[in-house]
Amino acid sequence: MDSFKRIDSRLANQLREVSIQPDIAPNAPGSVLVSFGNTRVICGVSYEKRVPHWMIQQGVGGGWMSAEYSMLPYSTIGRKPRDVGKGKQDGRSVEIQRLIGRAMRAVCDLSKLPGYTLWIDCDVLQADGGTRTASITGAYVAAQLAVRKMLAQGLIKENPFSEAVAAVSVGIVDERVLLDLAYSEDSAASVDSNVVMTASGRFVEFSCSGEEATFERSQVDEMAEMATFGIAELLKIQAQALV
Hints:
Layout: E1 18-22, E2 30-36, E3 39-48, H1 53-58, E4 64-71, H2 83-86, H3 91-106, E5 117-126, H4 131-152, E6 165-173, E7 176-179, H5 183-186, E8 191-198, E9 203-210, H6 217-241
Parallel strand pairs: 4-5
Antiparallel strand pairs: 1-2, 2-3, 3-5, 6-7, 6-8, 8-9
């Protein structure tokens, strides 16, 4: 058995302490505070009876689901200016919110949200690596909570979600594959990967990139295997939060 321990005493294939606290925002139909170690994100889901204009123009039926992501100014050690103060949206934020939206739509039958848009808002309270993976994992739970209220109110007839979806980071640090990287590990990683996977084991996203480094196919396989293990644990935590 590999006795390797990380800076925070975790094993290589061990998640940080993960928690999902439902109903954190009273005005949102669905909300959670999700924590991956010291990374904390509020995910809130709201719905409204309208769809994007392009759907109307193109005669597309059903509903829609969209996400917004932001890091609050005090979420990092040095203050992060709000996008509105810069006059444009940060490219990284756009990339992440698109990923969150794709992940949610991958497990959703939009035809079961006729005329409705689900808005997913992910706001990072504290960033210590893995904000996008925490956002996706928490967003699914918040969206399910919102859908339950829609069902209870008779706004929709069926739950549009076919299965759960969660995400985790994996990386190579000092030639070791590590699961769920904190910022200190992520900043030192020679290879960084974010994995989004459904409960049935299908990938929504599997991105790998080397930082002035290359990696082998065997390492990709190892990262995939470790991510699959970690996401299985996250799916259990999501299910407990939805009991």
